[in-house]
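Hello Y.,

Per our agreement to keep a running log of every chain we model this quarter, I'm adding this entry. I've kept the format consistent with earlier entries: sequence first, then predicted structure.
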Amino acid sequence: ALENQDLQDSIKPQKVEFHSLNFNTTLHWQPGWAREARDSLYFVQYKVYGQSTWQNKDECWGISSHVCDLTHETSDIQEPYYSRVRAALAGVYSNWSLSCRFTPWRETMIGPPMVTVVHSNKSVTVKLQAPQSPYKRRRGSKIPMTNYYDLLYQVFIINNFLDEQHRVLVYEGKEKVIKIQNLRPGVSYCIVARMYMPMLDHSSAYSSRQCTML
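Predicted structure for the entry above:
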């Protein structure tokens, strides 16, 4: 019985954490410390904070992976959720490992906008598209993250001859198409953008650089 107890403890999943980007939410964990723990199978449950019963996540029931997609299960974005995972090996089940509380609206990371750059001889037109959530409108199109938060676009220009860190903010606001005027011909310019959330003072990562030569 003692051996079983040891095995139970040594295969128990570690570091059970929610990761969420634009409300695409996955649960991650690490295997227990025993060397044989890598052969374990995992079982995932979830619930809304305050509910008494745990729900099984059928697609993550007896899996060998260390990640489970809970996007659909956490779609009420104002609710706080918990999840828990346990491992099984050779007929022995570990205890459950509990995640921290996770509230999608407060904790999801916002991704960068999509940026398209069109240039004419002295100006650059920047087209911006907000990141999309996984949730769909009735007609099937995905709902942009700007529906859930008060988000601003921040657009920066990098003059290629200066170093990467020298970004100059040229626009902040909600317009999806902006024009940057009075640029010098023959100079290579790069544009990056990010989403900014004034209320929580959060910024997304920067978009990939879009460079153009006037």
